[in-house]
Amino acid sequence: MFSFGKNKEATKVIDVVFMNKAAKWHACNLALKADAATVFIAWFEETQQQLQAFFKDQNQTSAEVILYRQASAHYTADKQIIFVEHYPLLEKEATLFVALNLKEVKIFSSLDEPLFQYYGGERIIEIIKNTGVNENEYLQHPMISRALKKAQEKLAEKILIEQSAQSQSEWFRRNLCE
Q: What is the dihedral of CA 98, 103, 106, 107, to 10 degrees?
């Protein structure tokens, strides 16, 4: 079979999963200290506001926390980009990654977020706690990224008409009333 269109290489997603939001915010702070030009991108206004408040509490006045719709390839060029959550639907993420010309993207998530809770994140938290893992440690493996991708694809199958939301939890309430 021939492909006459542009061969789109998928953006490599590096998922970094923390046990809870506090550990994720701590990692964002460390990333900012390591590279002051880091841009943090949130999918939802609530997440953006929470991270901005966290940075303010940490006296990190130069932190750039923007919403996905404010991101452009020109703005993010030559900067470290960290997404601070997944969007529940894979296609929306992939479209933005291509628009931003990202070959690789790092996404910080936490097991207490609605996306993970929808798929039993609280059970995973208990398992991890029982192994004695430090709360600030993270999970990162290509298997995790594949599992998240499949979870997003399964969610997309359930959505007929997507309703927008201010937070990830509101998105789940509005779009997956089961």
A: 20
Encoded amino acid at 34, one letter: A
**What's the helix, strand, coil split of the chain in %, to 5?**
45, 15, 40
Q: In the structure encoding, which two tokens stand for residue 31, read together?
A: 């990333």
Query: Is the dihedral angle over the CA atoms 141, 145, 150, 154 positive or is it negative?
Result: positive
| Cβ contact 34:155 at 8 Å | no
pLDDT tens digits for range 115-124: 999 987 777 7
In 88-177 the beta strands, taken as DSSP E runs, fall at 104-110, 138-139
Model confidence band, residue 75 (pLDDT cutoffs 50, 70, 90): confident
Backbone dihedral angles phi then psi of residue 44, each to the nearest 5 degrees = -125, 145
